[in-house]
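User: Okay, second chain of the day. Same drill as before: sequence in, structure tokens out.
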Amino acid sequence: MASPVLRYPHELPADWCAQLRRRLLAQPDHRLDHCHYGGMPTELPPRLREQLRADLPALLQPAAVLVPIVQRPHAPTLLLTVRASHLRRHPGQISFPGGQLEAGDADPAAGALRETAEELGIGAQFIEPIGFLSDHVVRTGYRVTPVVALLQPGFALALDGTEVAEAFELPLSFALATANYRARRRSLRERELQVWELPYGERLIWGATAGMLAHLRELLHDESAA
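Assistant: Same drill. Structure tokens below.
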């Protein structure tokens, strides 16, 4: 089988980081009407949105993930993890570091930093949070706040094998190229839904992680589309 063609924009905007800082939310927005539904396109028909809301648990568990943009000298990348195969939920799935908020977490950013230290061994001194994407609701009952951050090179990974099988970097330009995404039909509780997938070589990013990347792409779409 031939290797897949990986499409990149020719270059990122010179001021991509400044643009991102301006367009990210300065504070989390937990309003359910503003949430994205894991992996689905931003714009959903009102009737479908109402049906999806009706399927959610009465109480959503707050969670947070870090969306780390590594400031590599040649080109920025996104740091992603592969979940351990023995986990009960989403084994082997590609995700961002993060998890359910705990009582000691002051806010979603604090929870994302704590989870990143626990899962990957990266200390807060390497991480600069710069804003938030809209919350993403997943059908397992979590409301996930994505915390976008700049990650300075020089960190050393120390993976927690009980949660993370692997970590890898995805070029930011690849994640911002519209042509790299594809829509897949999926049945959920007798409903036909469209969800995003992002193939990357032999890897497949899907679910809420693909939805978050697609949302990040939307913020810089005009400047970064392939």
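The radius of gyration is 17 Å.

User: Thanks, on to the next one.
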